[in-house]
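User: Could you write out the 3D structure of this protein bound to magnesium ion? I've included everything you need below.
Assistant: Certainly. Input first, then the structure.
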Amino acid sequence: MSETLENLLQENRQFPPPDALAASANVTAAAYDEAAADRLGFWETQARRLTWATPWESVLDWSNPPFAKWFVGGKLNVAYNCLDRHIEAGRGSKVAIHWEGEPGDTRTITYGDLHRAVCQAANALTDLGVAAGDRVAIYMPMIPEAAVAMLACARIGATHSVVFGGFSVDALAGRIQDASAKVVITADGGYRRGKPSGLKPIVDEAVAQCPTIERVLVVRRTGQDVAWSDKDLWWHETVEQASPEHVAQPFDAEHPLFILYTSGTTAKPKGILHTTGGYLTQVSYTYHAVFDLKPDTDVYWCTADIGWVTGHSYIVYGPLSNGATQIMYEGTPDTPHRGRFWEIVEKYRATIVYTAPTLIRTMMKWGEDIPAKFDLSSLRLLGSVGEPINPEAWMWYRKHIGRDACPIVDTWWQTETGGIMISPLPGVTATKPGSAMTPLPGISADVVDDQGQSVPNGGGGYLVLREPWPSMLRTIWGDDQRFIETYWSRFEGMYFAGDGAKRDNDGHLWLLGRVDDVMLVSGHNISTTEVESALVSHPSVAEAAVVGATDPTTGQAIVAFTIPRGHVDSEGEAGEALIAELRNHVAKTLGPIAKPRQIMLVAELPKTRSGKIMRRLLRDVAENRSLGDVTTLQDSTVMDLIASGMKTGKDED
Ligand code: ATP
Ligand code: MG
């Protein structure tokens, strides 16, 4: 690979923060100066937003990189910080969670209610023999008990490992075995696409392969029939009968809080370990800063699943440590109709929505008449996470969801970083569609070339983090060597995230997708993101995935898989004409070097369970290989459809 990534896409639109938001923002531009003057002092100030039982002796021990210790000697309890202290401050009757089940059943849970449930669960787990340091697997639908289970583990110092409720027996068993978990917390099932979908049968099969599991705690959600063994206990017969009195003990700042396996887009999932004090400090601060939460008036909704890091940091620990009121939704966006999300926003008068580009592009495909049917006037701030957001998807989000009035925060971070790293500050930053803009105060991100040298403005390369940060991963569970090799070996003294990025002429950062996906076309390193964004900027396109396929003349050639928007006629000759138009559109937007050799019009793209496009499978198709590992794929039939369409795809000049 040559030194840098091409910088092809030009974007000149820019949106300053709304005056009212800027005037009342939680965090102002001064934070950048404070952090620049004294980075560690800045993080100490943010740590003081939490309640510590014992203060730390030193803020950072970086004497044995890459193994960091933050807030050395400090002690605190995460659940106390998320619950008890709000109740002690008189906010026990404030709503913590407005929960909406997929069938339309609802629950309203105050901080007092949540505290009671967490204390009961903490007592029940202790009675089952779970002690500080033990691992507990959580395999749940999006019901409040999922958050209760996590907080109960945190409260007693047990390490939770949440496994997304859509994963298979093998995925669950592998994660339980890797962490040697002692207990699994699950439910009989959850509602998905209008039907009860079973979780307990999957747990039963997994547990049969996992001798470390002593107990299985089962929440009754759907009431479906389940097999029962002598390891199994009902939640309502144990947790709900337990004492609601529980005094939280403080734990060391470096006590393990959770293990979470990365989504597996690129390789075998890695068990990312996060600890207590630094994690909560950064997650709590970034939630306050990036979402500008006003606890008395905001109603926040993060649409992620609790099984992903976004659910950990920005449903459970960030919002609750800040005393937020939030919405939690069990189901899918199209059940029972495609307006369900916007109906929920209208119903609860949501003010802040945090979602993923995949969802926004799906909404683009379905058409703007759907959100237009709902009153979205309560919204004041929108967020995006998970993939690069294409500028046109950003504009669509701003216009059709945000009424051209809400700032958008495009937040770059990873399971490994624990909390948000690069993002606009909504009251400060004049945002650009498609750019995550600048590192947050206290974070030092950079874009470097092959040799680890910073690229100048206008250049592209590898995204790195030059200094440790409080919510950084501490290791890969059980595999320090893989931790060092994966993240700290590519560039001396820097964390390498695996993502490509560019710095524009104003110094703002643009994420360009994973470096593994970069295409080498006639000696140029071209990012998938820029070509995809160029395709999505055409009014007929909702979504696009681009890969580099081996080509005899150019080394690699660009092959694009494109989903047309709902209203577009893409059959037969109309489809051929659209393909020709799109190829020219990309060449015009980015230059002839980026013109796709081939464009396929498809109905769906292969995505991970967290909704990210899995390009490596498309590369297999484009190069006529048999498919690689598909176990983390959302819907494996998609690949058959794409592969059969490929044979009739167009291939010209
Ligand atoms: P795996 O590491 O197993 O392949 P994953 O990287 O998809 O899985 P996550 O940690 O959930 O798992 O995702 C982090 C990645 O998501 C980032 O490295 C980046 O590629 C992408 N990402 C997240 N947020 C953004 C964003 N705002 N802009 C661009 N890319 C983003
Ligand atoms: Mg990753």
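The CA atoms of residues 82 and 320 lie 5 Å apart.
User: Perfect, thank you.
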